[in-house]
């Protein structure tokens, strides 16, 4: 039986179910006539925070841009930083050079912008020049003559010592022999050395005399040899002084030319002084490189060129950060914020089977490249990389970048490696991520609040209105122009605005998630180009929307098919006690849809427990469980103030095999309980959604459009009877942006949508029976729903009390 409820509560009119955007309100023909917005709309709070964060230079005033993906965080910060960085001074460049005293600790040079590449080129030219000039200086006739004189002087002194010793030996019939193994003495007669046979034929006394004399001369030979070594040492010293003098002459004027060029940079001048000392000290390497020390151990040899290149690397300049003539501060977007990509690394190269490294293999990280400017990172990607978050915090806290491997940082390896001098850090770091990520970091990592003091919170939507629509049209014009899409005419813009309000879940709001809008514009552009149109109109936008739905609604169609086949039991006609059609939403990421669920309740006498079967089998989320407990509080507060709630009830989502979460079904479950308690049947032509509080007020829920459309699709498939509809919270009316077919059905009275504020309004619609209010005596009207529920609960309480009184009597008898 269809109950006429028009006298109690009127259904919503079709006009409030969809807020249209009239294309006639726009003064433009298409978006090509509109100027793009200079900045994101609807993000005034976030933009203010960004401007403050990048302007203040205090310690720890880094930024965290938080908000859902697609809200334009990246585009906004990119545009703002690009414009601001162009007006700021270009930061210094940084170079690593050899520390000749401690090669394992390379030194860092701070240079003006553009000077790094210039110094590197100058040092390369200097090195090439020296490799030619030094050998040439050592091949002059003057050098050869002076070197020969030193060698001749040493040789002359040694010959004099030998000659003197030889003359004394001849006087004693002893000859001084020059053997391959050194100097020696032998017996002689008339200047001829005796052979061993001749020596053996001599008398014993004479042989003994020779031996004594030879022994005496051998003792005198040792001091003489030491003296000759001193002559050699003196000669080497003189030769070294000569080489030093020649090398200084060949090197100094060449390095002086470079030194004058960088006279105003004390660090470079000091470095060039060290270079000059080291070149003079190792001048032999310029004349002919020595064999690699490992070559003999492994039986390998290196070419002269390879040996020379290995040695001359010590004079190179490793320009870690160069700006290459770029003006303004750097803006770095690091897409892969690994530990080494952030703080830099020291690479290794294989040489003769061993891994070696030097300062030339130090590589810059994102912090080096962004030093003096801005570094933008994705917070989630950063936290996913081992120790990257800790490394970033360490650098920001110490205001310097120290390059070391993970093994060194964690003290896991003891391998000797480089320990480069740290570089001072002055950078503004901008992290981007979800709000929950920022809140969790702030709660569990106290350093976050000290290092990221400015949070820019991006909104998902903006207010809708005449001014808002025009601003939105300009934003769409900017996206279309930037993405090289066809212009959108006024009707196309209006349809996008309407769909944006639907996506925002509020007819008074517009979605400002740039990524979602860009995807829709791209697909609408595709539909227009497919038909060789010059503009994108409402027709093409609608086709794009329909195509998006069609691609994602396979599961929705399957569920409705199972309902139509009777596999899933859902009634849309008739009446039944303790059974209500609830509405749920399934979110598949890019597509969400609503579908009805049968919710039933059974009651009996008990201890005041309302058992949620979903919770008992651990299919209920905490919010759903909370909703069930709230409706228990409502029952006790309304019907069992002066007596115990002697109720045992069970609630369940029939044919539900997945987790249930949310409190949007709490009012539905309460309606089912009231029907089961009162025995009054509930019409199955209405579906219900809404949460309830302990005072019986109906509260707003999410996904109201999808829920209404889900029940409408089922009723439409079975045939609209005119009494079917949906009951929603009154506070959700502003969120309605329903499909056109639903609006048309409501306009022709084939489908109804009711908005209620209280449980009493809802139960009257579902049962056709007045809910009833307490009179002055505190009683509900006879025959009302509330009166029947209260009477049933009083009955349960009386029976329970009677059962409790009979138990002691039975024991006594």
Keywords, separated by commas or semicolons:
disordered C terminus, Helicase, Ruva Protein, domain 3, Ribosomal Protein S5, domain 2, seven-stranded mixed β-sheet, alpha/beta, 29 helices, 813 residues
Could you characterize what this model shows?
The structure is a single chain. A seven-stranded mixed sheet has the order 23-24-22-21-26-29-30, sandwiched between helices. A five-stranded parallel sheet has the order 8-13-16-1-17. A three-stranded antiparallel sheet has the order 3-2-7, with helices on one face. With 813 residues, it is of the alpha/beta class. Among the domains are: 22-39 and 460-552, Orthogonal Bundle (Helicase, Ruva Protein, domain 3); 43-91 and 323-458, 3-Layer(aba) Sandwich (Rossmann fold); 557-799, Ribosomal Protein S5, domain 2 (2-Layer Sandwich). Mean pLDDT is 87; it is low at 1-7, 291-306 and 808-813. α19 runs parallel beside α21 (538-552) and α20 packs across α21 (538-552). Helices cover 49% and strands 16% of the residues. The chain is elongated, with a radius of gyration of 47 Å. The chain is built from 29 helices and 30 strands. α27 (740-747) links the parallel β29 (725-729) and β30 (752-756).
């Amino acid at each position: 039986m269809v109950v006429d409820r028009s006298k109690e509560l009127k259904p919503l009119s079709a006009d409030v179910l969809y807020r249209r955007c009239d294309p006639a309100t726009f003064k433009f023909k298409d978006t090509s006539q509109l100027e793009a917005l200079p900045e994101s709309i609807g993000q005034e709070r976030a933009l203010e925070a960004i401007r403050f964060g990048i302007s203040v230079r205090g310690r720890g005033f880094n930024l965290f841009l938080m908000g859902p993906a697609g809200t334009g965080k990246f585009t906004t910060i990119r545009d703002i930083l690009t414009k601001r960085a162009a007006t700021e001074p270009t930061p210094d460049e940084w170079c690593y050079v050899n520390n000749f005293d401690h090669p394992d600790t390379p030194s860092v040079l701070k240079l003006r912008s553009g000077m790094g590449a210039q110094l590197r080129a100058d040092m390369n030219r200097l090195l090439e020049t020296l490799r030619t000039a030094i050998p040439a200086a050592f091949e002059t006739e003057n050098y050869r003559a002076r070197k020969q004189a030193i060698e001749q002087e040493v040789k002359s002194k040694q010959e004099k010592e030998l000659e003197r010793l030889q003359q004394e030996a001849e006087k004693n019939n002893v000859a001084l022999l020059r053997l391959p193994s050194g100097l020696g003495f032998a017996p002689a007669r008339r200047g001829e050395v005796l052979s061993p046979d001749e020596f053996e034929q001599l008398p014993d006394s004479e042989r003994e005399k020779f031996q004594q004399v030879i022994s005496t001369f051998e003792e005198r030979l040792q001091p003489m040899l030491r003296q000759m070594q001193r002559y050699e040492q003196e000669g080497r010293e003189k030769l070294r002084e000569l080489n030093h003098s020649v090398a200084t002459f060949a090197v100094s004027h060449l390095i002086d030319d470079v030194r004058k060029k960088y006279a105003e940079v004390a660090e470079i001048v000091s470095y060039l002084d060290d270079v000059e000392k080291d070149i003079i000290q190792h001048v032999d390497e310029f004349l002919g490189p020595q064999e690699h020390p490992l070559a003999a151990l492994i039986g390998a040899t290196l070419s002269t060129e390879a040996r020379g290149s290995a040695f001359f690397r010590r004079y190179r300049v490793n320009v870690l950060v160069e700006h290459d003539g770029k003006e303004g501060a750097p803006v770095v977007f690091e897409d892969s914020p690994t530990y080494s990509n952030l703080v830099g690394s020291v690479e290794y190269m294989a040489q003769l089977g061993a891994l070696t490294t030097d300062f030339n293999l130090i590589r810059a990280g994102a912090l080096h490249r962004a030093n003096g400017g801005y570094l933008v990172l994705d917070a989630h990607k950063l936290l996913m990389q081992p120790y990257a978050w800790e490394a970033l915090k360490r650098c920001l806290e110490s205001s310097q970048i120290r390059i070391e491997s993970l093994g060194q940082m964690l003290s896991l390896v003891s391998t000797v490696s480089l320990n480069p001098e740290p570089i001072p850090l002055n950078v503004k770091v901008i992290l981007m991520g979800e709000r929950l990520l920022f809140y969790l970091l702030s709660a569990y990592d106290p350093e976050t609040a000290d290092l990221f003091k400015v949070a820019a919170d991006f909104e998902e939507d903006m207010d809708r209105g005449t001014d808002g629509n025009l601003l939105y049209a300009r934003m769409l014009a900017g996206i279309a122009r930037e993405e090289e899409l066809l212009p959108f005419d006024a009707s196309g813009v209006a349809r996008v605005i309407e769909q944006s309000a639907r996506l925002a879940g509020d007819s008074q709001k517009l979605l400002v998630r740039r990524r979602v809008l860009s995807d829709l514009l791209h697909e609408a552009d595709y539909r227009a180009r497919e038909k060789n149109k010059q503009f994108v109109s409402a027709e093409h936008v609608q086709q794009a929307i329909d195509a998006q739905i069609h691609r994602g609604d396979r599961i929705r169609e399957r569920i409705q098919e199972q309902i139509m086949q009777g596999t899933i039991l859902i009634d849309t006609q008739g009446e039944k006690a303790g059974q209500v059609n609830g509405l749920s939403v399934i979110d598949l990421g890019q597509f969400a849809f609503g579908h009805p669920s049968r919710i039933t309740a059974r009651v009996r006498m008990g201890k005041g427990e309302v058992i949620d079967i979903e919770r008992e089998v651990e299919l209920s989320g905490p919010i759903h469980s909370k909703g069930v407990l709230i409706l228990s509080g409502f029952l006790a507060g309304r019907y069992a103030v002066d007596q115990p709630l002697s109720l045992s009830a069970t609630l369940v989502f029939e044919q539900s095999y997945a987790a249930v979460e949310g409190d949007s079904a709490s009012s539905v479950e309460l309606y089912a309980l009231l029907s089961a308690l009162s025995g009054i049947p509930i019409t199955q032509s209405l579906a219900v959604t809404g949460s309830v509080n302990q005072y019986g007020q109906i509260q707003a829920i999410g996904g109201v459009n999808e829920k209404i459309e889900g029940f409408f699709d089922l009723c439409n498939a079975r045939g609209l009877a005119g009494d079917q509809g949906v009951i929603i919270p009154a506070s959700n009316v502003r969120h309605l942006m329903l499909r056109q077919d639903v609006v048309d059905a409501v306009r022709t009275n084939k489908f109804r949508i009711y908005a209620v504020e209280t449980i009493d309004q809802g139960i009257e619609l579902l049962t056709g029976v007045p809910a009833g209010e307490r009179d002055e005596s505190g009683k509900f009207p006879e025959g009302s729903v509330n009166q029947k529920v209260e009477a049933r609960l009083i009955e349960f309480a009386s029976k329970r009390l009677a059962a409790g009184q009979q138990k002691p009597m039975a024991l006594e008898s």
